[in-house]
Structures are given as structure tokens and as C-alpha cells.
Specification:
Length: 256
Amino acid sequence: MSNTETLPRDLPEEITSRMSVEQETHARDPRALAFADAYPTRPIPAQGKVNTDPIATTPSTGHDELWRAIIPETRSRANDLHLPIVAAFAARLCDAHPEADRELVMVATILHDTGWAHVDQSRIVSEGFRGSGDWRQAVIRFEHEVEGMKVARRVLPGLGYDESFVERVCEIIDGHDTRKAAFSLEDALVRDSDRLWRFDQAGIAMSMEWFGTDASSYMARLDAEIVPELISAAGVAMARADIERNNALLRTEVIR
């Protein structure tokens, strides 16, 4: 059954059309099937160095003009914290997977959540994090993906990126929260990077506020729900290292 039966009637067609696609359809998509065939072992083993040190020790570098182009979009939903930290994780995952298109991963990562700046700010937490049912399928999450693609198509051509590259970026942004199946290695690395921020101290603090939970419950949720979603073995290693560090730091076995 599609999600369209429960959608508000005044949503734009570009939102309803995406929400009406069943998740099983994504899993059967030729891109998802080709990716699964190319990387049958999950989580995907790393081909390069895996760094599990605290992410603050290795900030990402470069893409300064792109960052400047999206400064307005960093002023929403803590993107000025979220996006640089996710970009740092993306750089690490690219080190672990030198076979990936690093430029595609980094650009898509920097832009992936810019759409939050162009949705109804009053609904972000209430619907996107605390709504009833599957919070990842909240209408506003589809909206922010659509708006993020608009940002990419607006800023990237002026920075010298060709149409083909821009559309590959948009393919990753489209569904990075709401689509369960990854379509490529680059898509998978962006998804893992986006999730890995939740294991860092800044991500823990912001996510506890958004989800309205305590540290012990949140850390347990990370271990039970988010680690199994990670597609790369490097991402799993980074997540587990952060879980161990932050459980000890936050005394979650005592403060429950």
C-alpha cells in the first residue's frame, strides 16, 4: 500500500509522487540491484585506511566556494554544526574507499541537508523527529529532499559543475533520508556520513534535544537502530568507537 492515502491534499505533486513509491520498489530498482551485486558483502569492507579517532581531529578541507554559496542554508536546523561534521566523516569514508568518486561524495554531503532551510521551520522537530509513525517517512523529510535538490541545481552550475554531475548529486540527495535502498557506493557513503554525525558529541547533544530523550536512552537507540543501518564496515567501526567513548564519557551505565 502506498503512503498517498494519508497525505495532506495540498502537497505539491513532486512530494506526493515521491511518497507514493513503495520502499520495495526502491529495493528492486536496477541501480539498487547493480549496487548490491557489485558489493555483496555487507557491511562493505574498506579498501583503504579506517580512522576511528574523534572526528574533531580531522576536519574536512576544500570546497570553500561551495560552502560560501550555501551560508544561508547553514542557518537552519543546526546545519552549521551538522554539515561540516558530516563532511568530515565523508572525507574519512572516502579515505576508506578510494574507489569511490570522492568529489561526488563530498559535494553531495555538503548539500544533502540544505533543503531544511526552505521548509516550514516550525514543523522540523514536531514532524521530522517526534511525529507519529515512522519519523523517516514524515512529509517534511520528503520536502527537505526536494528543496535540497533545488539548492544543488541553483548553486552548482555557477561553480563549474556540469549538468551530469549535478544530476548525480541530486540523485543522492533525493531519498537520502526517506529511501531505504542505496543506489551506489557514493550514495552509501553519504548516507553513512549523515548517520555517523549522530555518534559524535555535537550530534548526540542536538539529537537528544530533537528527539526529546536522555543520553542513556539515546546511546542505546544508536546501538540498536542506527548501527545496523550503516552500509560500510568503516562506518560501523567509527560508530562503535564513538559509542564506547561517549558511553564512558556520559556515564550512561550509571546515569540511567
